[in-house]
Design a protein that fits this description.
The chain is α/β, with parallel strands linked by helices. It is built from 13 helices and 5 strands.
Length: about 270
């Protein structure tokens, strides 16, 4: 495996991994131009939805590189853990089962285990939505509302993630797997998560601008509004995502957002 920032270097690649933030995937993919060979797998390693277009990462790659086979790599993994050789398991999804299986075998190591799938949209949705929910979990933690509140929010957040995923045809086993529930559990429980830590600072009274740190990427900040918009278009109830978006836009205070969630009508859990 070779790391490069030179577009010309991909011409002879058997597979390409794009390891840039979600909002930079289009620029990175477009830079490859016609250098990517037919049917070459191009794997997005970002977790998000493109602002403005509402496109998922494999859709962005498909627009920029229609000759390639777009794939997605996602799951509960902190870069520091992977780099340190700590045990990590993630999911790689491609349209073709043969491609996803081959990539999982080629990229895996004794401590970096890849499960393969053909449910690209399900994997992408898990990675994108969990970032927004992690901000919410961080806010709850920052407000010192207790472990019970964090658990309740994470669980109800997963219900939102599942509703959103099902509307796109995501498979239940993907949503409850590594790239869905697994990643959600990790990012809603650890200050090593940039999204959770950002929410933590919001919960402690900082504004979104004050909570943002120079050089630190918080994907959920960019994804929240798009998820809310896409959910609205599809008629999907996602109150936690809506509340996070309103807090980030400073249309609602954290207190008002919490009140709106707690005042929702009682209903059956299922």
């Amino acid at each position: 495996m070779t790391t490069t920032a030179v577009p010309e270097a991909v011409a002879d690649a058997d597979a390409i991994l794009i390891a840039v933030p979600a909002q930079a995937v289009r620029t990175a993919a477009a830079a490859f131009g016609g250098r990517v060979r037919e049917h070459t797998p191009v794997v997005a390693c970002a977790k998000g939805i493109e602002r403005g277009t509402g496109l998922f990462m494999t859709e962005v790659i498909g627009q920029c590189l229609p000759q390639a086979e777009a794939a997605i790599l996602s799951g509960p993994s902190f870069a520091q853990d992977v780099g340190s050789g700590l045990p990590t398991a993630v999911t790689l999804a491609a349209e073709s089962a043969a491609t996803s299986s081959a990539l999982a075998g080629a990229l895996g190591t004794p401590t970096f285990r890849l499960y393969h799938s053909t449910d690209r949209r399900g994997v992408e949705i898990g990675g994108a939505v969990k970032n927004v929910l992690a901000i919410a979990a961080g806010i709850v933690q920052g407000r010192a509302l207790g472990a019970s509140a964090v658990a309740a929010l994470t669980t109800r957040g997963f219900a939102e993630l599942s509703r959103f995923g099902r509307s796109y045809g995501a498979r239940p086993e993907t949503l409850t797997g590594l790239s869905g529930l697994g990643d959600l559990i990790l990012t809603c429980s650890s200050e090593a998560s940039r999204n959770f830590s950002f929410g933590l600072r919001l919960g402690r009274g900082l504004t979104p601008a004050q909570a943002s740190r120079e050089g630190e990427l918080v994907e959920g900040q960019f994804t929240a509004a798009m998820i809310t918009e896409l959910a609205l278009r599809r008629g999907i109830d996602m109150p936690i995502a809506v509340a996070v978006t309103a807090v980030l836009d400073q249309r609602l205070s954290i207190e008002a957002a919490m009140e709106s969630l707690l005042a929702r009508p009682l209903r059956s859990e299922h």
